[in-house]
């Protein structure tokens, strides 16, 4: 195992450090302490060719200017909160409205735009980078001082484990995730429309016109949302289902997982031979197929465009504070939040 650190750039909040975890098989995971962004994941294809399978940039300036949350940790609350307001114990909180009058992904300067403290650890079997941040009471409108730690751990089994731990000194909301855009073709050679996805999920959340859950839980049966057997992403892009059309011809939906820690999410690309298996303790995964990626910038010399990557965001349900029948995203004072998601890279 090996760890490589270097200066990635600098912004007004300080120097940005890049950390690359390298295992004994040559797999690499690179991240920076700006937003805990994963910039590269290098894994082999069926011919042994090592290539990057996530969308990202080589400069901090591009992340500040162009990034639609590429590879970042999202918080305090992933997804949208309707109207940018919520109540806890009778107190009303007004959040930053950064998406059509709603709060999205933690606000104007969520966890994805913060500079985090960085530490590293390594032994013979795994290496890790640990990011820490203190989110102050009132930040983006949320109550409580929240101490949060995010750990990226790479093993010799070609597994990346993302662990989250947080505690608040006031009752607050917390729903964190990683927003990596995957493309298993390698170095963005193709889009993700022919990627095949399998998800152990019997139901998904209906969205309104602002892409916020209505509260209705819909069955996946006999729809383009049925990933219980593997199907290609193209099916949803071509679908006439009103929810696919609403999302911009594709997916931007939370799926309720029927199992945890049992190969519940599997993404594959037949041409490269790569396969990604995701296991989590979270109740849901948000599938976003890059339906709204802009084409006015480049990603490492490749023109950005729709469907160039897809996100599999393991998390709690968005806007759960307004839907009491959803699993709660409330974090009590002094309660320790813990969550873990494992990304296993292999070959078909």
From TrEMBL:
Pathway named in the protein's UniProt entry: Carbohydrate metabolism; hexose metabolism
Key words, A-Z: Carbohydrate metabolism, Isomerase
Keyword Isomerase: yes
Pfam families from the UniProt entry: Aldose_epim (PF01263)
Reaction(s) the record says it catalyses: alpha-D-glucose = beta-D-glucose
Entry EC no(s): 5.1.3.3
Family: Belongs to the aldose epimerase family.
Full protein name: Aldose 1-epimerase
Species per Swiss-Prot/TrEMBL record: Fictibacillus nanhaiensis
């Amino acid at each position: 195992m090996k760890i490589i650190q270097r200066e990635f750039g600098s912004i007004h909040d300080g120097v940005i450090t890049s950390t690359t975890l390298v295992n004994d098989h040559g797999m690499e995971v690179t991240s920076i302490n700006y937003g805990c962004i994963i910039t590269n994941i290098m894994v082999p294809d069926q011919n042994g060719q090592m290539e990057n399978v996530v969308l990202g940039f080589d400069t901090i300036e591009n992340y500040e200017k162009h990034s639609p949350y590429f590879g970042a940790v999202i918080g305090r609350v992933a997804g949208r909160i309707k109207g940018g307001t919520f109540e806890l114990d009778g107190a009303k909180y007004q959040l930053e409205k950064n998406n059509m009058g709603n709060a999205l992904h933690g606000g104007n300067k969520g966890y994805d735009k913060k500079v985090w403290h960085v530490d590293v650890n390594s032994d013979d079997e795994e290496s890790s980078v640990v990011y820490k941040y203190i989110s102050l009471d009132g930040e983006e409108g949320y109550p409580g001082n929240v101490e949060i730690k995010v750990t990226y751990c790479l093993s010799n089994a070609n597994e990346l484990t993302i662990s989250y731990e947080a505690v608040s000194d006031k009752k607050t909301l917390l729903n964190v995730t990683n927003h990596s855009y995957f493309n298993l073709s390698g170095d963005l050679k193709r889009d993700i429309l022919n990627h095949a996805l399998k998800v152990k999920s019997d139901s998904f959340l209906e969205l309104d016109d602002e892409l916020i859950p209505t509260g209705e839980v819909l069955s996946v049966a006999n729809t383009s949302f049925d990933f219980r057997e593997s199907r290609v992403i193209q099916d949803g892009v071509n679908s006439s289902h009103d929810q696919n059309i609403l999302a911009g011809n594709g997916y931007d939906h939370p799926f309720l997982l029927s199992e945890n820690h049992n190969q519940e999410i599997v993404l594959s690309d037949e041409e490269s031979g790569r396969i990604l298996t995701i296991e989590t303790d979270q109740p849901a995964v948000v599938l976003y197929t890059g339906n709204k990626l802009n084409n006015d910038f480049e990603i490492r010399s490749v023109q950005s465009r729709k469907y160039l990557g897809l996100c599999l965001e393991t998390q709690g349900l968005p806007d759960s504070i307004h839907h009491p029948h959803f699993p709660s995203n409330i974090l009590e004072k002094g309660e320790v939040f813990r969550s873990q998601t494992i990304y296993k890279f292999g070959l078909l």
